[in-house]
Amino acid sequence: MNLEDALLLHFELKLELRTAMLEGRQLDAAQIGDCCGCELGRWLHGEGMLNCGHNSVFVQLVDNHRAFHLEAARVAELINQGQFDAAREALAVGPSRYSQLSSAVGSGIAELRKRLFQQFSG
């Protein structure tokens, strides 16, 4: 699994949310909220769990990834309900929960990659 590609797809979700807001398009909040519906989630709950489930960084990444998807689904629901100001606020860089969880997933992936590299190169 290419963790960098998975990270890019998660960053693209924010673009999708913003685009849907601008276009007034409905989103499938249930699908967005499914943490096993993306490539990273399938890896985390499958092969990753088998190979890395003992690693504390991995466990935290799984938790943050799940929370990220739930928050993204909450934002999608705001968009679906036409609550665009609330959705914009929920996507704000810095203080928003979405932004914090997105950063946590990104840093978790980076830390996991670093630990796996050390494990397999040492």
From TrEMBL:
Residues of the Chemoreceptor zinc-binding domain: 10-75
Name of this protein: Chemotaxis protein
